[in-house]
From TrEMBL:
SUPFAM superfamilies, per database record: 6-phosphogluconate dehydrogenase C-terminal domain-like, NAD(P)-binding Rossmann-fold domains
PANTHER family assigned to the protein according to its UniProt record, in alphabetical order: PREPHENATE DEHYDROGENASE, PREPHENATE DEHYDROGENASE [NADP(+)]
Pathway linked to the protein: Amino-acid biosynthesis; L-tyrosine biosynthesis; (4-hydroxyphenyl)pyruvate from prephenate (NAD(+) route): step 1/1
Molecular-function annotations in GO: NAD+ binding; prephenate dehydrogenase (NAD+) activity; prephenate dehydrogenase (NADP+) activity
Name used for this protein in its record: prephenate dehydrogenase
EC number: 1.3.1.12
Prephenate/arogenate dehydrogenase domain span: 6-294
Keyword field: Amino-acid biosynthesis, Aromatic amino acid biosynthesis, NAD, Oxidoreductase, Tyrosine biosynthesis
Reactions catalysed according to its record: prephenate + NAD(+) = 3-(4-hydroxyphenyl)pyruvate + CO2 + NADH
Organism, scientific name: Aliiroseovarius sediminilitoris
Superkingdom as given in the UniProt entry: Bacteria
Amino acid sequence: MSVLYNRVALIGLGLIASSMAHAMRRAGLAGEIVGTARSAETRDIARELGFCDRIVDTAVLAVEGADLVVLAVPVGAMGAVAAEIAPHLQPGATVTDVGSVKRAVIETVAPHLPDHVHFIPGHPLAGTEHSGPRSGFAELFDNRWNILIPNGADEAATEKLIDLWKGMGANVETMDADHHDLVLSVTSHTPHLIAYTMVGVADDLSRVTDSEVIKFSAAGFRDFTRIAASDPTMWRDVFLANKDATLEILGRFTEELFALQRAIRIGDGEALFDYFTRTRAIRRGIIEAGQDTDAPDFGRTGKHK
Ligand SMILES: NC(=O)c1ccc[n+]([C@@H]2O[C@H](COP(=O)([O-])OP(=O)(O)OC[C@H]3O[C@@H](n4cnc5c(N)ncnc54)[C@H](O)[C@@H]3O)[C@@H](O)[C@H]2O)c1
Ligand SMILES: O=C(O)C(=O)C[C@]1(C(=O)O)C=C[C@@H](O)C=C1
């Protein structure tokens, strides 16, 4: 593939930004990749790893002359970063983000941006429980979805960003921000909350049973612990930013949980069997659609680091 952007600025140098840098390099999509992070320690690690062409000390310096700016910080930090860089953005530049929530990011970022840039929010549906500049890898986005929210943005700028994500290995879909937030609440956010809760419950129990819960933890519970090891700052921000959709889905979740609880209490085996048959079909459907993530995973289960 050929160069799509002459200078890409990555703001925040964690899992997603470092993976983007590796993936852009793999396909030769950027003339130059300039990165910055809030802490000197992260910048030093990124310099040592060398996945960017230049590491600079501030976001203002990073966006200088950039035709693509990627906000890759926790959702709660996006607004402040946008305010800081806004006066320094090059006319005609595209500004995008990778935040896990979209409506709140648009509401906090868009008001700061000048009319002469194209703001096209995005969200790659790919990640691991690891964070920081050392955790990135070029294959993270391969065959994963990236959702873009063009929201009336310039068509040519949108097409170019779509090409970038395809060049990094992703499949791209566009949608509305509210729809994104509801769908992701079901498929990502609420499942994370449930995993955090289940591990918390087990931890409480382990204090009672002298660590037996951890010692004898079975595969299912181990999967929960992987998810519950995800970055606390990132997930705090996700739940605060996607409050309404999360509360809506949690309400439905608790209703279903109570229905299953009742089936167990009254010994309604048929209800349990029917429910589990339905959910098993969903898992099989995911595998048939080729979206099974148990296959070689380049570190999604934490083997890579
Ligand atoms: N981890 C995932 O699975 C995943 C997947 C898709 C999207 N996302 C989204 O991508 C974004 C980045 O996530 P990540 O996993 O790369 O995170 P990360 O923790 O690996 O990296 C975050 C980066 O942001 C910087 N940062 C943190 N707080 C900041 C602040 N207040 N101001 C400026 N910089 C700050 C950190 O120094 C670090 O460089 C988040 O918005 C997250 O919701 C994450
Ligand atoms: O595999 C994981 O560790 C993830 O949880 C990645 C995951 C997800 O829920 O699928 C987490 C949050 C992101 O916004 C996108 C992807």
